[in-house]
Amino acid sequence: MPFTNFAVPEKYRYQNGFNSYHETEAVEGALPIATNSPQTPPYGLYAGKLSGTAFTAPRAENQQTWLYRILPASAHSNFEPREHQTFNTNPENKPWEKIYQIPNQLRWDPFDLDETVDWVHALHLIAGAGSPVTKSGVGYYIYAAGKDMDQNSAFYSADGDFLIVPQHGVLDIQTELGKLLVRPNEICVIPRGVRYRVTLPQGPVRGYICELYQGHFALPELGPIGSNCLANARDFQAPVAYFDEDTSTEWTLLSKFAGQLFAAKQNHTPFDVVAWHGLYYPYKYDLGRYNAIGSISYDHPDPSIYTVLTAPTDHAGTAVADFVIFPPRWLVAEETFRPPWYHRNTMSEFMGLIHGQYDAKTGGGFQPAGASLHNVMSAHGPDATTHEKASSVELKPQKVGEGSMAFMFESCLMVGVTEWGLSKCAKIQDGYNSESWVPLKPHFKIPAGKKRIANEVTADGGQADARQQPHYA
To answer: Which residue spans of the chain are classified as CATH 2.60.120.10?
Structure first.
């Protein structure tokens, strides 16, 4: 079926549509009609605007949302630094941590669960490029948590949009704009600045995050594919308005700002938005609804055909971040090596595995909750076991990826690895290259009766082989 049969049933209602203009109210009549900022909003609410782009951004790119809440978002104390030495998700130019740019192929064993921390302290930057200070680049995180966030606490990142890919456990996320239940095989995007609280109804959680420092995610253009397929806009789900009424309890508001953690106090809940309308909101998507496209004749197409979301640069066709999946699908190409070919890519490729076995890495080293990084121009491809099998298998229609879901964060940037990723996590596989590609054997043999074509100039100045002469000779 074209959707995931989740073990944990859905518990919330949603609005459907990607980049759709939504409006929702939790109390009838709370949303003003026509006007955005009436002199007196309904029911004594305060009007406020949440801007995800510049006011003057082109209409097609403009993302703003009007919120109608019990108290303004600005009603809090000053932010004070908190845990600066231990909470550091922007190591560039920090004296106590660095980012390492290295060309080696890297692979990590499954990352550990951690039942001692909540969502905020579960974030481990494993790799990245650029800086949230200049709103350029990306950060890749592993998260592992075992505790709910404190009852009266909320968190937001001023640094970028969080694309969350759960691998284990369920996230119950209360945001200012409503609630989301996010399970493995779903993804969730929480835009820059949106405040939220994460609880864990099924126990410990683990997964991956791509934080986008620049721009926002969009659906890829479909070109000659037409108007549908890949991730269809109708399958994205945004929350409906939900609010708490609490103006007497102390709350802690946590902010990730330039990779550092800050905290402020306020005497009311941040989750008091009674109604909202706009284009800037969190959303989720079931990866089981992805409509895959592939070759039905010959050859293996580029993996870009599996792009769910993209964050384009100002250069057409080049993304600061693509989110790509490898879902269950049929392979029918004739006379074709069906796994991904060996390649060197100007784009960097960070991969993770949600569940199952990735069809291009069958040797057992790439496991659920693990990861790999093939940086700019680092050669990679199927391991020796997969190559041998795929080179001799009977090419009949084949369903691959059944019960599996792998994904990739792809970027045009050269991605550096943090000290946590290289050493502190203690998950790097030292033998990745030697296990995957060193065992490959040469099979080249010149058939009998064939000779090498010489390319040297002969003593008399002529061509060694007339077939090598340019067409104008």
So the answer is: 14-286, 288-436
Structure tokens at 344: 């060197």
Q: Which residue of the set 22, 216, 380, 387 is catalytic?
A: 380
Active-site option among 300, 355, 419, 435: 300
Contact indicator for 167, 352 with CB cutoff of 8 Å? yes
Q: Which of 23, 84, 245, 343 is catalytic?
A: 343
Quote the CATH superfamily of domain 288-436. Answer: Jelly Rolls (2.60.120.10)
pTM of the shown model? 0.94
* Banded model confidence at residue 96, pLDDT cuts 50, 70, 90: low
Question: Does the pLDDT at position 294 exceed 80?
Answer: yes
Of 25, 176, 349, 410, which residue is the catalytic one? 349
For the domain bounded by 14-286, which CATH number is listed? 2.60.120.10
Give catalytic status of residue 300 as yes or no: yes
Whether residue 349 lies in the annotated active site: yes
